[in-house]
Amino acid sequence: MRIPKEGEYITIQSYKHDGSLHRTWRDTMVLKTSEQSVIGCNDHTLVTEADGRRWLTREPAIVYFHKHYWFNIIAMIRENGVSYYCNLASPYTMDEEALKYIDYDLDIKVFPDGEKRLLDVDEYEAHRKKWHYPNDIDHILKENVKILVEWINEEKGPFSDEYVKLWYERYQQLSRK
């Protein structure tokens, strides 16, 4: 697997369990890579949906992907504070084309005031039946919801203000070059 360098732009591709392309983000700036994770920033990034619709992200967002956790985290930096959108998804892989993962529908949204909402439970159940998610994946995803909620409650990693500030400042430094 190719590891992108700091300041490099990559594409992110989200797939569904059946292998169909779900969504693509172009030009995510890489802020840090390690053997286990990728941290990046989207800022007015072009997003293309599977049906061809295109839109730009509205605000800067720090994105976090990990090789062992079944979720990824988007910290959206807004005027009223940081909001988080957490996708329950397979660990990422990377090739010459893009950083890739399978989106498993369930999401957790965290508002600036700390309120948490589990989203798209109906969509998850419908797709679980339609695409026959194996029981082990269902179990892994439910366990990762618990891990994610623990991280949120403990303000661990991407859920700390210091983390978002540090990586957004790094993005600003790199984008000035």
Outline the fold blueprint.
Elements: E1 9-15, E2 21-33, E3 37-42, E4 46-49, E5 54-56, E6 61-66, E7 71-78, E8 81-89, E9 93-94, E10 99-110, E11 116-119, H1 121-130, H2 135-154, H3 161-176
Q: Could you explain the architecture of this structure?
A:
The chain has a seven-stranded mixed beta barrel. With 177 residues, the protein is α+β, with helices and mostly antiparallel strands. The protein is built from three helices and eleven strands. The mean pLDDT is 96.
What Rg, in angstroms, do the CA atoms define?
16 Å
User: Strands across the major sheet, in which order?
Assistant: 1-2-3-6-7-8-10
- Can you count the helices? 3
Helix/strand/pairing category: alpha+beta
- Percent helix among the residues? 25-40%
Principal-axes shape call:
globular
How much of the sequence is in beta strands? 35-45%
Give the SSE order as H and E letters.
EEEEEEEEEEEHHH
Instruction: Please count the beta strands (DSSP E, at least 2 residues each).
Output: 11
Low-confidence runs: none
Q: Mind summarizing the main beta sheet? A: 7 strands, mixed, barrel
> What would the average pLDDT be, to the nearest integer?
96
Distance between the termini: 27 Å
